[in-house]
Amino acid sequence: MLRRTVLFVSDGTGITASALGKLLEHFPSTQFTQVRLPFTDTLDKIELAQSAIKRATDEDGGRPVVIMSLGNVDLRNKLKQANAYFIDLFNTFIDPLGLELDQKPLTGAGIAHSVMGSNYHERMEAINFTLGHDDGMTNSGLDEAQVILIGVSRCGKTPTSIYLAMQFGIKAANYPLIPEDFERGTLPEVLYKHIDKIFGLTIKAERLHSVRSERRPDSFYASLDNCRKEIATAEDLMRKNNITWADSTSRSIEELSAIILQKIRQPAK
Amino acid sequence: MLRRTVLFVSDGTGITASALGKLLEHFPSTQFTQVRLPFTDTLDKIELAQSAIKRATDEDGGRPVVIMSLGNVDLRNKLKQANAYFIDLFNTFIDPLGLELDQKPLTGAGIAHSVMGSNYHERMEAINFTLGHDDGMTNSGLDEAQVILIGVSRCGKTPTSIYLAMQFGIKAANYPLIPEDFERGTLPEVLYKHIDKIFGLTIKAERLHSVRSERRPDSFYASLDNCRKEIATAEDLMRKNNITWADSTSRSIEELSAIILQKIRQPAK
Hints:
The structure is a homodimer of 269-residue chains. Chain A has helices at 15-19, 43-60, 73-79, 89-101, 120-132, 157-168, 179-184, 205-215, 224-240, 253-264; strands spanning 2-10, 30-37, 65-69, 85-88, 147-152, 172-177, 198-202, 245-247.
């Protein structure tokens, strides 16, 4: 297997640059070592980056990929004296975009992820809301929720809610469906007046059994039979109430969130 | 103020494409409307995207920016028949990177954010760990933590911990410093054996006062005077124990996380 190092060199957090690192998943037959060099904003630090490039080349037997986001032109040019395959976010994106918009881009360090960012405070508020409305812990404030995820215990509601809040500033509450609900055959009463905001998650019984068994091995709760029954009843409940749902078994929280966003951003019918 | 729409068109979640949207912060004098079109993986959906492009052009009085990630070449070419400024992740990054690596990239839909991604399960485990070790809720399992954030109540420990877990797969516990600790003049006892993993957060008193006042207005807890005293004592405690800390007042959780990662990834001295 081919080995290559990818260095993310940024004068800020390096988060935008390393988001592009996800594109490396398109090359599964190369084993990438990812190295982040944030706050690289002086000539000295550029020299350290150059040494890292050289070291990686020696270790891998091939030049590294450098994904770089440096506002300062001198630092940019200096770094490029090293031997690497450079992807320069300024050259490739920001400068051409400036021509398109007929505007000079800001070139200060760390602009993309400062607290001044356009929706930073919205995102922080959403995180607070979501943590305070995890696992049905309160019924108050549900009016404020933009989405309420429901589903059986351990089907992925919490990480998906937090991702929606952190990434998109969505106030996402979540509510478990529990044995009492299944016996009664109705959703928790408080949810009916928010029915338009509800999105369901479901999961395959085998997977739920394995997830629950990690926490409570050999319990009734984790048994395959109980998982099957809970899931079937939860799906019945959702069907009966016309709730859209998605299966979390083979979907990442990013994929689930993208599906949920599509649903909640559609105008109500 | 110039108005432009940015469309993120992807055959997957669109998350990699929209991460590049952060680069728009470099153009503060344009007001961008961001529209995500995930799962655009058929000709019909490409046509919907083309209509959205046209509509945005009419509304803004200028052609939109389209950041696109489409594995299928036919869909890619079809979309580009619309009049927009295109940033094509395949043309710009993935295909040239394939030449550099001498490998054909995978072109299936949604490769970047599937559960098959290289560290997905590590990230999910980290989120579970972090949620289970928020706010000093348990002392068990701290051996497993990769970092333990400490600081006064409401200084930003929780969102930073969750970001570290979600984005980087770091198991981040956090522990509040509370009046009992200040009276005793020592850190919580349990933390001393993990002192190498501790990172401190601090905050300006005025900001803390304002954050706490939202929750408990006019309380002693939120009073400026108490905030000042708690912060001074917490900083004293951290200084006495040689704990590195960062001020969260004007830093985003992304910036704090980048700082913390730099610290914890340095080899111990």
